[in-house]
């Protein structure tokens, strides 16, 4: 039977709670008041007979279940872990009149027969009174004013807003170090591989719910969640969202504090690597991204590459505002996004009359590659960069781009190949002091920790006023050596070793030592421009997994090779731990 309270219709009360109240009144709830423990000041209420008590299920004796409930009638503790089992419900069915229980960690009433939370005014008053007493005692001990002591008449939600505890990063003591050492298993440890079932998914592999045409976001997030440097950064608490929110005033209710994408990433890493296998809904992250990229805030399908760039830009922008200091572009030391993905491209434009060369450096977080043209076409006539010559745009779209096969190495060769700029793009030579025809060549000055390749599958022609998707197959290697595409290698091939003693672009030994990369994620796109779907393939412990929104399936290597790659993520080999290498090392 429903009733109206303050003009609102309240749901029909639980019949088991009504029966419990008719038989026992409010005495059991008042008796629980001595067992209510409040995390001072004004924190969440919990049920404990002793402050140091660790409640355990009376049936399975487990203390780490999702929910533990204490029966209000007999004080026995039972777990509730749907859909596997519910010892609390089994207790209620076996003993009539023991349906009402209380959550020991949240001090909330629960009906074990209905398997739902219930509300009782007397019980809620007991919790509020315990919070008030604890808050008053804490305020008096700290020497607060008399006005702060008179909180008995204030609302409990105001107590939570008034009292805050300064965040202090946790550091384990000697006893906790021993506990961690005895009960921890290293991530993907080869010595513990035998303990993991062959059918069990790797740690941290969790599906992401589609929130309405958000497969573009889920596919990129799956790749980022398993990017080794990014994963290690967030799981080692290098960006603590509670400390960041407190520092920026979000905890204190400052409404003008902007949402932090890095904080939402930290929360997502915690949820995905918590051990829960049920699909996760990144709704909070989607909302924060919408606040950053308001022009993309809709439930329409977006481009995965555009989302990737926008997300990294959001993390970088927030960190830059917090630090209020500039960093050298491409240095990779400003934020975690640039520390992982930032590299430097070198562009050489050489005058064909006198040989004068103008060199510029541009930071990048990914490398966009054109697919190779057909064998019958001229590779040098096409543009290797989106901002380069576009006078052959009509010819490129006019050819049958969907036929044949391209290779990632061929695309990189085309990207770093010297090309003659068109007559409409003549270069102003500082030596000749006139505009001259020139040659342009791209190369990679600095490699990032993680290489992201974006394949230009979506073409737009301003001449033909049309857009299309290129479905050509791209062959990509699982292991890639980038030494051939570095500036040092290209300069050596162009001028020989004599150039280096006189050239300002010194050799980067670190690049040559870390030029080998391993593929760990592939984002694919199927369908056309108007309707398509993104899927990610992840390589974990030398096994491939298909991440299709909330569904995770193990796939064969041949399926990954046959996929229509749109974005490829490579990590430096020294940071990629393969199971075979670890076994050899042990």
Q: Which structural class do you get from the secondary structure elements?
A: alpha+beta
Distance between the termini: 68 Å
- Rg over CA atoms: 31 Å
Percent strand: 15-25%
- Helix fraction, binned, reads 25-40%
Shape: elongated
| Oligomeric state of this protein | single chain
Which spans have pLDDT < 50 for at least 5 consecutive residues? Answer: 1-8, 142-166, 188-198, 375-401, 498-506, 508-512, 578-586
Largest sheet: 8 strands, mixed
Number of strands: 28
What integer is the average pLDDT? 75
Count of DSSP H/I helices: 20
Give your account of this protein's structure.
It is a single chain. The protein is an alpha+beta fold and 586 residues long. It is built from 20 helices and 28 strands. The strands form 8 sheets. Strands 13, 19, 23, 24, 25, 26, 27 and 28 form an 8-stranded mixed beta sheet that branches. A hairpin with a 6-residue loop joins strand 3 and strand 4. Helix 8 crosses helix 13 and helix 10 packs antiparallel against helix 11. The N and C termini lie far apart (68 Å). The N terminus and C terminus are likely disordered.
């Amino acid at each position: 039977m429903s009733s109206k309270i303050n003009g609102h219709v309240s749901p029909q009360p639980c019949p088991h709670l009504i029966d419990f109240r008719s038989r026992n009144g409010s005495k059991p709830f008042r008796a629980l008041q001595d067992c209510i423990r409040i995390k001072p000041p004004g924190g969440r209420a919990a049920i404990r007979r002793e402050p140091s008590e660790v409640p355990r299920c009376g049936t399975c004796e487990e203390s780490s279940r999702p929910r533990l409930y204490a029966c209000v009638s007999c004080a026995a503790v039972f777990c509730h872990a749907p859909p596997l089992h519910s010892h609390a419900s089994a207790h209620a069915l076996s003993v009539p009149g023991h349906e009402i229980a209380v959550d020991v960690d949240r001090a909330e009433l629960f009906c074990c027969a209905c398997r739902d939370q219930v509300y009782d005014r007397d019980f809620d008053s007991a919790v509020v009174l315990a919070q008030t007493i604890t808050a008053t005692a804490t305020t008096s001990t700290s020497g607060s004013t008399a006005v702060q002591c008179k909180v008995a008449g204030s609302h409990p939600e105001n107590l939570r807003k008034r009292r805050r505890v300064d965040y202090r990063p946790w550091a384990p003591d000697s006893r906790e170090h021993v506990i961690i050492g005895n009960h921890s298993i290293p991530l993907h440890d080869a010595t513990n591989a035998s303990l993991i079932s062959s059918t069990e998914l790797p740690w941290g592999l969790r599906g992401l719910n589609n929130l309405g045409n958000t497969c573009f976001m889920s596919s990129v997030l799956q790749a980022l969640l398993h990017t080794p440097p990014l994963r290690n950064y967030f799981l080692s608490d290098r960006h603590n969202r509670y400390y960041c929110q407190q520092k920026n005033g979000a905890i204190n209710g400052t409404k003008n504090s902007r949402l932090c994408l890095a904080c939402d990433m930290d929360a997502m890493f915690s949820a995905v690597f918590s051990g829960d296998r049920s699909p996760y809904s990144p709704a909070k992250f989607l909302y924060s991204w919408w606040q950053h990229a308001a022009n993309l805030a809709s439930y329409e399908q977006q481009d995965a590459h555009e989302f990737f760039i926008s997300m990294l830009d959001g993390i970088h922008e927030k960190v830059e505002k917090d630090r209020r200091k500039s960093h050298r572009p491409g240095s990779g030391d400003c934020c975690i996004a640039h520390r992982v993905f930032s590299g430097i491209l070198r562009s050489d434009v050489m005058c064909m009359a006198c040989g004068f060369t103008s060199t510029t450096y541009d930071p990048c977080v990914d490398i966009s590659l054109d697919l190779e043209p057909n064998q019958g076409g001229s590779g040098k006539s096409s543009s290797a960069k989106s901002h380069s010559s576009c006078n052959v745009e009509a010819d490129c779209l006019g050819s049958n781009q969907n036929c044949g096969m391209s290779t990632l190495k061929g695309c990189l060769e085309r990207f770093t190949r010297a090309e003659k700029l068109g007559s409409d793009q003549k270069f102003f030579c500082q030596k000749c002091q006139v505009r001259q025809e020139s040659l342009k060549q791209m190369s990679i000055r600095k490699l990032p920790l993680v290489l992201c390749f974006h394949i230009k599958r979506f073409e737009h022609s301003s001449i033909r006023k049309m857009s299309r998707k290129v479905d050509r197959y791209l062959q990509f290697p699982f292991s890639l050596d980038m030494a051939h595409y570095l500036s040092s290698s290209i300069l050596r091939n162009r001028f020989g070793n004599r150039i280096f003693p006189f050239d300002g672009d010194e050799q980067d030994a670190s690049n040559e030592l870390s030029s080998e990369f391993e593929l760990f994620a592939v984002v694919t796109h199927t369908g056309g421009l108007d309707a398509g779907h993104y899927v990610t393939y992840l390589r974990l412990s030398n096994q491939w997994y298909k991440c299709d929104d909330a569904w995770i399936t193990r796939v064969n290597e041949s399926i990954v090779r046959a996929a229509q790659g749109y974005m490829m993520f490579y990590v430096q080999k020294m940071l990629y731990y393969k199971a075979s290498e670890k076994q050899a090392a042990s």
